[in-house]
Amino acid sequence: MIQLRATAVGVGLMLVSSCALVGADESRDLSQYEVAGPYMIQSVRPEADRLSGQVREFLWTHWRQHRRGSVVATHFYVDGSSRTSYFVEPDNQGRWLIVEYTDNPFPPNKRIHREPVHKFACAEFERVEPDPLHLPLVPIPDQEPRQPEAYLLHPICSKGKDAKLW
Fold this sequence. Notes:
It is a single chain. This protein is an alpha+beta fold. The chain has helices at residues 2-17, 48-64, and strands at residues 34-42, 69-77, 80-90, 96-103, 118-122, 125-128, 139-140, 152-155. The strands form two sheets. Strands 1-2-3-4-5 form a five-stranded mixed sheet, with helices on one face. Residues 1-20 have low confidence and may be disordered.
């Protein structure tokens, strides 16, 4: 019984630590940001699309309206997990960006080296049809209303490379 409690406490601590902001060590006054989440998204659960859509809608809305925002989403897969912190904010030139920090807080095998935090930032986005295998990507007009589960976000600065879709 004692071992079960210790395991439960350990899992609880892992979940709490997964809510921390990745990349928060950069100088940001988080009191200026609207915060959403944290989201714990398990890929095999029925609510995964809905929760991912909420993250996407938060990012799209804040970026379009030039409102500071931050959200943390931890994705759990069969073979591991990833934690992503997003910040919607202006850069030094006044362009509105979405900055993404991703790490792997729970490697599937403790012997596997944990990858460093990956940073990605972009100032131009478009909504695209939700089929990530459909190339070329099909943009959705800005004025067309869509539920967040019915589109993906495409950072335009990744054109010409492998299409990055959120």
